[in-house]
Amino acid sequence: MAEKVQKASFFRSKAFFIIASLAPILLFYTLFSVIPKITAFYYPFTEYDGIGEPIWIGMKNFATIAKDADLWAAMKNNLFYWVIATPINFFAALFVSFILVKKPYKENNFYRILYYFPAILPSVITALMWQFAFHGRYGIFNALLNAVGVNVGEFYWLTNATAAKWAMIIPMVWGGWAGNMLIFMGAIQSVPESLYESAELDGATDVQKLFLITVPVIWETMKTMIFFSIIGLFGAFELILIMTNGGPAGATEVVGTYMYKIAFGAEGVAAFGYAAAIGLILFAILGCVSVVAFRFMDRGEAIEMAG
Amino acid sequence: MASNESGMVRKLEAKDVILRVLLGLWALVIILPLIWVFYTSLKTNQEFFMGAWQLPKSMQWNNYYRAWSQLGIGKSFFNTVILLTGAMVLNTLVVALGCYTLARFDFKGRDVIYWYIIGSYFITGLNTMVTGYILMRQLGLLNSLFGLIIYYGAGSIVFNTLILTAFMKGQPKELDEAAYIDGASYWQTFWHVGLPLARPSLLTINVFNFMRYYNDFMDPLLFIRDPEKYPLSVAIYSMSQAMTYRADWVTLFAGFVIMMIPTIIVYSVFQNYITQNLNIGALKG
User: Fold this and answer.
1) Cα–Cα distance between A117 and A122 in angstroms, integer?
2) What ipTM, to 2 d.p.?
3) For the domain bounded by B63-284, which CATH number is listed?
4) How far apart are the first and last CA of chain B?
5) How far does the CA of residue A281 sit from the closest CA of chain B (Å)?
6) Could you say which residues from 68 to 97 on chain B have a Cβ atom under 8 Å away from some Cβ of chain A?
7) Of A105, A147, A279, B210, which residue has the fewest beta carbons closer than 10 angstroms?
C-alpha cells in the first residue's frame, strides 16, 4: 500500500514530468534529424545497395567521384543556375520591395499579396504549369511571344538542349524571388524614416536612397540571405526533376537530379554509398564556399566603414 | 523658381507612371499563367488543342468532377488530409510539450538540451536524402502514410522549437503556480494552462507546418510506392506523366486548380500571418 502511494507520487513529481515531456521531442529529433546526419558521414565510405549489408570500401567512392565527368557537368549546371537566377531573384526582390514600401501607390498592398502567392504555391504545381506553358503548340509561352510579335513557330522549349537550359530559369524566378521580397520588405520597413528625410534635404534621388541608405542599413540581412542562397546552391531540384528530369541529353542535369538517379534510379542500381558520398562532397564544398564568402563580405564591410 | 518646382513635380509623376506600369506588368507575369491554367481547366479537350488563347465556349465544370473521381484526385486529397492532420497534431504535441518544459522549468542540463535541438539549425546544407531513406527503410516505415506522418512530425522540430520556446518564455509563470495551488498536476497544468496560452504561436507553427507538408514533393516521392497512398503532390505528378498516353489535358488542369484551392484558402485567411510571421521561415527555405 505504502509502495503504491510512493509510486503514484513519483508519477506526479516534477522530475517525472520533466523527463516524460522531453522524451518524445528528444527521441524524434535524435532519430530523424541527428542520425541521418551522422550516418551521412558513414555511408560514403561503403558500398551499399540497400539490400545486403553495407561493405566498407574506404575512399573508393571519392576516387570515383573525382573521375565522374557527369557529376562535374551537373555541378557546373548548378553553378550556372545559381549565377543567373540568384542575382535576378535578389535584385528583383530588392527593387520591388523598395518601391512597395517607399512609394504610396494604392495598388501596392494588392501587389504585395499577389507577388508572394507563387512562393507558397506547391512546387509541383509551379513545375507542371510551366512544363505545359513551354509546350510548343498549346503552351502559353509561345502564345505570349506571338502576342508581342515574336514568332518562333511550334518551338518546344524543353526538348531543345540550349533552350531548356535557359527556359528553366523562368520558373525558378517566377516561384523563387518573392521569398526574398518578404524578407527585404521586413528589413526595409525597419530602416528609420529620419535617415531618408535628411537625405531628401540633400536632394538624394530614389536610387541614391536605395543604395546609400537602405542597402547599408539592411546589409546584415542581405548577408544572411546570401549565406542561405549559397547553402541552397545544390538544393531545390524539384522543378528540374519534374519538368525535364535533367534532360534533354543532360542539358539541365543538376547534382540533385543526378544523385536522385544514382540512389533511386529506374535502372535499379541503388548505389546508396556513392550517392551519399556525393552528398558529403557537396557539404564540404558548401562549407568552404560559405567560409570564403563570409570572409569576403566582412572585408567588404570593413572597407565600407573605413571609407 | 515656381516653374522650376512644377517641372520637378511633373518629372516625378512621369517616373511614377513608369514604375506603376512596370509593377503592373510584373503582376501580369505572375497572374497570367495562373489564369491560363484556370480557364484551360474549363475547356473541352478539342478547345485545348485549338491553342492557348482559345477561351472555353461553355464552362466544363464536369472536368472537375472527372478529376476528382476518375483521375483520383479525391482519393489523394483524402490521403493528404490524413497526412497533414496526423503530422500537425503529432508535431504540435511533441514540440509543445518539450518547449513547455524547456521554457517553464529550471533544471540541470536544460540549456544543453535546448542547444542540442537548436544546434542543427546551423548545420544546414548536409544532404540527408539518401541516409533519411535508408533510415526509414530500416525502421520499416516506407510505403505507409503512418511512416510519413512520423517523419513529418519529427522533421520540423528544430524551427518550431525555436519559435515556441521563445514564445513560452515570455508568458507569466504565475498562472502555472495558481494552477498548482488549486491542486492541478503538472500534466493538467500543461494541458489547461500552458497549451491554451500558447495558442497564437501554435497557430504560427501550424500555418508554417501546413505549407511545408502540403507543398512537399520529395519525401512522398521517395517513401511512398503505392499509388493508392499518394498524397496530392506526388499523385498529380504521376497523373501528369500518365497523360502522355491518356491525353485528357483539361481534366489534369482541373486537378491543378483543385490542388491550388487549399493554398489559396490558407493564404487568404492567414495572409497577414504568413507575410509577417514567416520571415525566418522564408529564410530557412
Assistant:
1) 10
2) 0.90
3) 1.10.3720.10
4) 53
5) 9
6) 93-95, 97
7) A147
